[in-house]
Amino acid sequence: MRPLSIVLLGGTGFVGSHLAGRLVRDGHRVRVLTRDPARHRELLVLPSLELVRFDVHDAAHLPDALRGADAVVNLVGILHEGGGARFRRVHAELPRTVALACRSAGVPRLLHVSSIGAEESAPSAYLRSKGLGERLLREDAGPVAWTVFRPSVIFGPGDQFVNRFARLLRLAPVLPIARAGARLAPVYVGDVVEALVGALASRTTERRVLELCGPDVYTLGGIVREVARSAGLRRLVIGLPGPLGWLQAAVLGLVPGKPMTLDNYRSLGVDSVCRENGFAIFGLVPASLASLAPTYLGAGRKSARLDAWRRATAGRDATT
Ligand SMILES: NC(=O)c1ccc[n+]([C@@H]2O[C@H](COP(=O)([O-])OP(=O)(O)OC[C@H]3O[C@@H](n4cnc5c(N)ncnc54)[C@H](OP(=O)(O)O)[C@@H]3O)[C@@H](O)[C@H]2O)c1
Question: What domain range includes position 315?
Answer without folding.
Answer: 5-155+188-212+275-286+300-319
